[in-house]
Design brief:
Helix content is 40%, strand content 15%. By secondary structure, it is of the alpha/beta class. The protein folds into 2 domains: 3-27 and 277-328, no CATH class; 34-272, Rossmann fold, CATH 3.40.50. The chain has a 6-stranded mixed sheet with strand order 3-2-4-8-9-10, sandwiched between helices. Strands 5-6-7 form a 3-stranded antiparallel sheet. Strands 1-13 form a two-stranded antiparallel sheet. Helix 2 links the parallel strand 2 and strand 3. Helix 1 runs parallel beside helix 10 and helix 6 (177-184) crosses helix 7 (200-218). It is globular. The relative contact order is 0.14.
Length: 329
């Protein structure tokens, strides 16, 4: 491929990309995701008050996003584990609509098993993994509690975003990350790419920075280091691997990076996003993931090879929008 051909390909790429960003849907689709808020045992009044306040922020965010909310746990629910089991039993197992699980409280780990502290029986990581096994729908699990790093690998799987407040089960001091995340998910300041909606990735990055700032401003040694896992390998990625919303570090063995799927999911979607059907969104998300993987491998390809492979994917995206009945603004 000669220089002139490459330049024409670049121009076509820019024109096609501009077209894809300048579309709006014609018709809307009712979409209702669901969320389960699980409050752990406070232990002390100051902690119980914090968890309750964080939960109230989450309720407001769910209301803003038209997300159905159910609650379990808290100091008044002496059988929180059974309540959670019942709520998960009634949830649809196969649907393109996401299910959000938010766990706020204290956690522990003995080095072998992580546990989330409830007023009655505690919730073990292995039990939560078993409860979630029947689900074949997007799952977002935010483990906003101490020692929650022990939950990361047991819960990981396809089409799942798992966030832990700590990098391991040994970080067992009181965790503040959950509170910051509940605020960030509906905070316009966390919308780093300015597309009118805050993704799970953006909220996580914003909350992780606020957590780090707390310890820095207080002159304390940080005792919690959050991880995000969304590629199914259960290893997770720390926030300092990102510049903006893109991971800028490489993994050993070139394993898949975390963050892409998390950036495709929003609790409160923009008006344009709400108008896309679940089927169209799923197809678009798959194409975007393929595009992102190609960009990651760009350095290992000749320029002409890269553009030759990139253009068909962009054309598929354009055809997707066209067939869905979309028009230019």
């Amino acid at each position: 491929m000669g220089t002139q051909t490459i330049e024409r390909t670049r121009l076509n790429f820019r024109l096609l990309a501009a077209t894809l960003f300048a579309i709006s849907p014609l018709a809307g689709f009712a979409q209702t995701a669901s969320s389960i808020l699980i409050l752990g045992a406070g232990g002390q009044d100051q902690y119980a008050s914090s968890f309750k306040a964080w939960g109230a922020d989450w309720e407001k965010a769910c209301a803003a996003g038209d997300v159905t909310l159910a609650k379990a746990g808290g100091d008044l629910d002496k059988n929180g584990l059974e309540t959670l089991r019942s709520l998960l039993e009634t949830e649809p197992k196969e649907t393109p609509l996401p299910l959000w699980l938010l766990l706020l409280g204290h956690g522990t780990s003995d080095g072998k098993e992580g546990k989330f502290n409830l007023s009655g029986n505690d919730l073990a990581a292995s039990e939560l993994a078993a409860l979630l096994k029947p689900f074949h729908r997007p799952l977002i699990v935010v483990c906003g509690f101490s020692a929650s790093g022990a939950f990361l690998k047991p819960l990981a799987g396809p089409d799942r975003v798992i966030i832990s407040a700590t990098k391991s089960g040994s970080e067992n001091n009181f965790s503040r990350f959950g509170g910051y995340f509940c605020e960030a998910i509906a905070d316009p300041l966390a919308d780093f790419d300015k597309d009118g909606q805050t993704s799970v990735l953006e909220a996580w990055l914003f909350a992780a920075q606020q957590t780090a700032d707390f310890y820095k401003n207080e002159g304390r040694l940080a005792t919690e280091h959050s991880l995000l896992e969304d590629n199914g390998d259960g290893l997770g990625t720390p926030p300092d691997w990102f510049k903006g919303i893109r991971a800028v570090k490489k993994t050993k063995g070139d394993r898949a990076l975390d963050g892409l799927r998390a950036h495709q999911i929003h609790l409160t979607a923009s008006p344009a996003e709400r108008l896309l059907s679940p089927a169209i969104k799923a197809e678009r998300d798959a194409l975007e993931q393929e595009l992102a993987r190609m960009r990651e491998g760009k350095s290992g390809m000749a320029e002409e090879e890269y553009y030759a492979k990139l253009q068909p994917l962009l054309l598929q995206l354009a055809a997707l929008y066209h067939n869905a009945g979309l028009k230019a603004r």
